[in-house]
Specification:
Largest sheet: 5 strands, mixed
Number of strands: 5
Number of helices: 11
Number of domains: 2
Radius of gyration: 28 Å
Oligomer: single chain
Strand order of the largest sheet: 2-3-1-4-5
Distance between the termini: 40 Å
Structural class: alpha+beta
């Protein structure tokens, strides 16, 4: 079963419920001989259904968010231009939805353009008081939505950061790793591609703690994390798996190229002088993802390769397929 992100679920619910709620209006407009608006409502429902199918099948929410918000703004504005003020009510929940699914500035721009067009349309047909009531209420709804969702996103980002970052090394923690692996596996189920994982461990780290103290050990963990992150591609992510073990995933390469990357990282750490001029090496296990396997099995294969690297004398890179034969140094 595919685990969907919050954004996917939100777009599916929004497009699905909107299509259901608008459906009766097609019939009502048609029986009222308002064929143009009935056709527009039908087009809106069809488009919402297409968005639903697109998100459900592909999971590409970023493109769908902007397209959905833009389409709804155009549709509602068009209805107001054609049939007047009675369709204004749809814009109020739409404004809130825009700020919920889009960045605040982009949502604000869409709302501003829609409000300006609607203001131009309604001004000749209503009194000055009604005009200012409509314009100011729409503007106030947009401003309040901007403030509320801006504060919500900042708070949510801070909470997410606290919940997913290892406080010592500032790399991802186990929770962040689980979320990343869920996303990777969901992408693999939709469209299989080459992706590999590195699991590395600091060699003889307990000896460093015993000889130099835990404060120095913590500083070395921080330095290793910083060193690895500064030499790892932007698409790759570093996670503290536990103690002195770290995982790098995803490496969007096959096993052979992942081994090459791992070897460069091994040399990088081995040649680096850490705090107190302490030398350190790492052992690395490499595993390429196999279609259909759970994340636990993927990590277990990398872990088996890591143990082989330890058995071969440490400061080694071992690929999962080589675990029973030879090592790469």
């Amino acid at each position: 079963m595919i685990r969907r992100t919050t954004s996917e679920i939100m777009l599916l619910v929004l497009s699905g419920i909107s299509a259901v709620l608008i459906s009766p209006f097609v019939y009502l407009r048609y029986t009222d001989n308002d064929f143009i608006v009935a056709a527009i409502d039908a087009l809106i429902i069809l488009t919402l259904a297409c968005f639903f199918i697109f998100v459900y099948k592909t999971g590409k929410v970023e493109k769908a968010k902007l397209s959905l918000a833009t389409f709804l703004a155009i549709a509602i504005t068009t209805l107001v231009v054609i049939r007047g003020n009675t369709h204004l009510y749809w814009l109020y929940p739409a404004i809130i939805a825009f700020y919920y699914i889009l960045p605040e500035r982009l949502a604000g721009l869409i709302c501003l353009v829609a409000i300006i067009i609607i203001s131009i349309r309604v001004f000749p047909a209503v009194s000055v008081i009604d005009f200012f009531t409509i314009t100011l209420s729409l503007s106030l709804t947009s401003i309040l939505s901007y403030m509320i969702f801006r504060n919500y996103r900042k708070t949510n980002e801070q909470l997410t950061l606290l919940a997913t970052i290892d406080p010592l090394t500032l790399s991802g923690n186990r929770r962040a790793l689980d979320e990343k692996l869920s996303i990777i596996l969901a992408d693999q189920r939709r469209q299989a591609s080459k992706v590999s994982l590195l699991l590395f461990d600091l060699d003889l780290f307990k000896k460093i703690n015993d000889c130099h103290g835990h404060a120095i050990g913590d500083q070395i963990l921080i330095e290793v994390s910083t060193l690895i992150k500064s030499h790892t591609r932007a698409l790759d992510a570093l996670f503290r798996y536990g103690g002195e073990e770290f995982i790098i995933v995803p490496l969007k390469v096959d096993l052979a190229e992942a081994v090459t990357i791992a070897e460069k990282l091994r040399i990088l750490v081995a040649e680096h002088k850490f705090v107190g001029h302490i030398s350190l090496t790492i052992s690395i296990g490499v595993a390429e993802y196999r279609a259909g396997e759970p994340a636990e099995s993927w990590i277990e294969r990398a872990d088996a390769a890591l143990y082989k690297a330890k058995d071969f004398g440490r400061n080694q890179v071992v690929a999962e397929l080589m675990a029973n034969t030879n090592n790469v140094t």
